[in-house]
Structure formats: structure tokens, C-alpha cells
């Protein structure tokens, strides 16, 4: 392992502005950045993309589109419009891919939400293709099936990606969401060329918060290196993206946190 | 829906002693009780079973056995011994079934834990058979794969139950653990006669604690009645067991909570 394929998500260092993040990542020789849309608020997006590249950073993804399911048709149309805006933002930023957190709507069945996800991706795929932006369907852990995603296994994401049969629609594999799945190895093998993104962190024992207690690689129980080998077995040679939501890490010094991320990446990924 | 098949787990009313629970359940015309082993501590188990029956309660299950995986052979042997003790306790109590929370050991792979679970059940099955006690493998939500169970889908539990091909080994379906699974309906249909137990509660939005924030039926997003129909479609005609771990509900009046349980059961199950 070396640092050449290490990417950090801006949300991982949430206390930093994107300008601060760019400088801090660059100082640590981190070469990849995935930009969360909230980090772009109030910025000129094109200029921000240029700034990141001038700091020596490669923009891996824009995070995140999706959230297609809604109880009303108006809500679903707004969601599609927002995803089209995300495609424009990705073009302006110079990001080649958008990660889709697909969504789930309280008050309707998961199957209805899943159908609305299919419809949403179908609506935006032609625009993504025209813009040259890849869409990565990210299955989320089943504990997020209530409101964040009705796509909860890699098998479901693969089914959906295969049904689109578009080079612009693939999947994102996040070890945090998928590590428990007895079908994980076979479903990663099944991905082939539509494995677009690989996200890493660890599962803390005990997990103190359902959303904001992700751990550094090596601190928990996820066999990150094993899963990385399966991912690379598909031919994937993209970045390894560190995506950590952590009240604990966000409360500390972020430059020091980046150094810990590098150490964890080199020794436990 | 009527109350004839309503069962409450002693853990659901954790602040009550088992003697208090028996009186409170009986006062509400609740006819089924599943006894957690901690509720029996310091009691004569045979006398406690008699007391429960005298209160008009049917003992549905003893909860819980399992926790087979351990890093050491000595740890695994202790686990098997404890499960044999649970079988003796079930006989003494007059409970016809033990629910197995299968376990997972930090420091080894889920696959290794799964193999140790198979070995553990194989070791105790002859004793369960001889004692006339059924063993119900309960798949737990994937968010408990770190330390509580390496069996996280009904498909896995069905695979295991089918491999044993014993009338004494089946599965427990708990809506809280399984509701998100896109294969749930087909896996329930697959259960057939080895669907031994049905546990209900609801998934609170937002879930504030990974362990102790279960909701009453109707308060969350689980389609409990839909899942009950699938369960009954297999021919299952056992109790509907309310199993709720909730810091919030435990802090209130337990008789009032039992009335809320009855209302939720009659209107949202």
C-alpha cells in the first residue's frame, strides 16, 4: 500500500472548509478528494474545481445525488431536478462521477421506494450520459432503510445497475454498509466493470450512534483489506475513499486526524 | 385480531420482576409469556413455571441460548455447556422452545463465527431432541453482526435449519431484524414448518440508540401486519411475541405500557 490511491471525502473532515481541506490534504500528500455538495455552498463551483486541481488533488466524486422516493409526484420531480443540478455541478467542478444515496420515504413500502429509485435513475441517466458523468448506486446498511435508502444490499444495486445496462450506471461499494453480507464476495465479483467506487472506514464496537460513530480502518471489525482484494479482483483500480462520519473525530484537530487516516490506510486497508 | 395469541417477553417489561410481570400480564388478559433467563435468577425454576401457569399464562419460549462463537475452544465449550443448561432450564420451566441468538466473536471472520454456530447447534441438538425442546435460530439485524450474531438474514437461518433437517431446529422471525430484506417474503414462504416463533415491535424514526430504542407496533415504519400475513401463510399459528427493548418505555409505568402494547397489537399488527 502507498498513498497514490488514497482519497478523502470532505465530510470526513467536516470542520474544514473546502479551501482548508484542500491545503490540509495536499500537505499530507493525499491525492484524491470526493466533494460533498454542502462543501460547495456559496462557492463558484468551477473556480473551486480549479483550486482543488491546483493543489494537486484529483476530484474523484461529487457526493451525493439520489433521494428519489417521495410520497408525492411533486416531491419526486423536485428530486429529479436536484439530481440534474448535481450533474451540472459535477461538470462545473470537474468530477467524473456522482454517488447516489438512493433514498426511502416513510409512509410507503420499500418496494414502492425501490420502484421510484428506478424511475429516478432512468430519468437522469440520459443527462448523465450526455454530460459524461457516471452514476454510482450506493447500497446503504439496512439500518438506514427507514429514510435514507431502500437499496440495502450489493445484490440489489447490482440488479439495478445490470437492468440499466448503461456504462454510466454502476455501483459504489462501501465496506461500512456491506461488510456483514454473506453474499458480499460473490456480489463484488459480479460487479465487474460497473464497480465505480470503493469507500472505506470501520465499524466501531460498540457503535454509540447509528450515524456519526464510524471508526478508522483497523479500529473495528471490518476486514477492509480482504474486501479491497475482492474489489481489486474485478479490475477496479480507482481510489480508496475514506468516508468517516464521526462526532469524536470531528471534535479534534483535523490535520492530526488526516495523519491518523494515512497511518490507518497504510496499515489496515 | 384478538388477544388470544398475544405474548409478551419479560424483557419488554424489564422493570418488573417475573412475579410482578405474571400478575400484570394476567390482569391485562395477556395469555402468552416468553421468559428471559435473567428473570429467573435466584428463583426455583420449576416453581416459577408453575406460578406462571397458575396465573393463566402459557410459556412460549425461554430466551435466550446461543452465543456459540468464541476465539478459544474453552470459550466454545463453555457456550455449549451454557446452552445445555438452558435446555434443562426450559424443561424445568415448562417452556417448549429456546430462542438462539447465535453470537459473533470479535477477532475472527464472520465465516468462522458461522461455522462455530453450526458446530454449537449440532452439539446441543441431540440434547434438545431428547428433552423435547425446540431450538429457534433467530437471525439478527446486520447492525448486530459485530458481537451479537453472525446470522443476519432469514436466508442464512433457513440454510442452517434446512441443513440440520431436524424437527427440533427451526427459525424465529423478528420483524425488527428482518423487515428491510428484499427477500423477506420469499424466505418466510420457504420456512414452512420450521417457522417456530414470530416476534414483533417497530423501527423508530429516528432510532436514537442501536439497542434500546425499539418502538411499539404502529409507531415506526415496519409493515407488521403484512409480515404477519406472510408468516401465517406458512401455517404458523403460534403466538405473536412482543419484544421491545426501550429505555423510554422502561422508564414509565409498566401496567400502562402493557395497555399500550395491547392497543398497538390490536390496531397495528
Verbal overview:
Two copies of one chain form a homodimer. In chain A, α2 crosses α3 and α3 packs parallel to α4. The first copy, chain A, has a single domain, classed as Alpha-Beta Barrel (TIM Barrel). Chain A contains ten helices and eight strands. Helices cover 43% and strands 16% of the residues of chain A. In chain A, strands 1-2-3-4-5-6-7-8 form an eight-stranded parallel beta barrel, surrounded by seven helices. In chain A, α8 links the parallel β7 and β8. The termini of chain A are close together. At the A-B interface, α4 of A face loops of B. Chains A, B: Keywords: Isomerase. Chains A, B: This is Sugar phosphate isomerase/epimerase. Chains A, B: It holds the Pfam family AP_endonuc_2.
Task: Describe the secondary-structure layout.
The structure is a homodimer of 269-residue chains.
Chain A: E1 6-9, H1 18-27, E2 32-36, H2 45-54, E3 58-66, H3 73-93, E4 97-101, H4 110-131, E5 134-137, H5 154-164, E6 169-174, H6 175-178, H7 184-191, E7 195-200, H8 224-233, E8 240-242, H9 247-250, H10 254-268
Parallel strand pairs in A: 1-2, 1-8, 2-3, 3-4, 4-5, 5-6, 6-7, 7-8
